[in-house]
Design goal:
The chain is α/β, with parallel strands linked by helices and 274 residues long. The protein contains 7 helices and 11 strands.
Length: 274
């Protein structure tokens, strides 16, 4: 599960070139949880014959072949596949994509790797002159990574920051304390001017990276305060807290919201706030 918890909003166009080195191929898996679908990213130096693909997406043969054709249409070949995390809407198609491209798959989770190399925070990937810096951004999942593309002052965030709405931190897999630390890590990079643009795992590109991350932090602080108020007013069950805090959200998303509330309650308990 990915997802965004949000009221209804216009759907900006996604897909296509985003920066000098990054092109998005949108997977055909739209839903309330995946927004317009999964963004599969192709990144490469403009004059290189080698490309890196980030998050091949679901096991959809037409989509995977479309990604291959997009790479080959630019006169390149896939040298490496990377995963931001292991949720099926990002990673399910990775093994088949590796077959199609004869490329390895690198991920933090050893179960998702195809080849000898994994990924760890602090790694620097250089392929065809392209440089990607691996950032540890756990919270949405324990294995969540982001990829800093310094030449474009951009970061590929997977589900850590979305192009629209906010990410579910689903208890028990998601941990809110880790997630807040990850957002602060991204915030520091935006404050130093190292990141201007967010290339998300779902939704449109965000040109104001600093504003987006600061909004996420403010939103989480606001939600935590709401959850704390709900508990203080006697709403002690997660479902009761959801009805209070997420009253403006489509009820179809309340099950996802309850998982997020459970993560918020766990965080508040861990810090002695409730």
């Amino acid at each position: 599960m990915t997802a965004a918890i949000m009221p209804g909003a216009p759907r900006p166009v996604v897909g296509g070139p985003a920066t000098a080195r990054a092109v998005c191929v949108l997977a055909p898996n739209p839903s309330p949880m995946t927004l317009d679908g999964t963004n599969t990213w192709i990144v490469s130096e403009p004059d290189s014959e080698l490309a890196v693909v980030i998050d091949p997406g679901p096991l959809d043969e037409a989509h995977l072949r479309n990604v291959v054709e997009t790479v080959e249409g630019a006169g390149k070949r896939v040298a490496l596949t990377l995963l931001t995390h292991g949720h099926p809407d990002h990673a399910e198609g990775a093994a088949r994509f590796a077959e199609l491209t004869r490329s390895g798959v690198r991920a933090l989770d050893p179960a998702l790797r195809l080849g000898d190399e994994g990924l760890s925070a602090g790694d620097v990937i250089t392929t065809g002159g392209l440089e990607l810096r691996v950032l540890g951004t756990p919270g949405h999942t324990a294995d969540s990574l982001s990829f800093h593309l310094p030449a474009d002052s951009a970061v590929l965030t997977g589900d850590t920051v979305l192009g629209r709405g906010t990410t579910v931190v689903a208890h028990p897999e998601g941990r809110l304390g880790d997630y807040l630390d990850s957002l602060r890590r991204l915030q520091a990079l935006t404050t130093r001017g190292e990141i201007d643009t967010i290339l998300p795992g779902h939704g449109p590109v965000l040109a104001d990276a600093r504003g987006a991350v600061e909004y996420y932090l403010a939103h989480r602080a606001h939600r935590l305060a709401q959850v704390e108020t709900a508990v203080e007013s006697g709403r002690t069950s997660p479902s009761a807290v959801v009805a209070y805090v997420y009253a403006d959200v489509d009820r179809a998303l309340w099950p996802a919201a309850e998982l997020s509330v459970r993560a918020q309650l766990a965080y508040l308990c861990e810090h002695g706030l409730i």
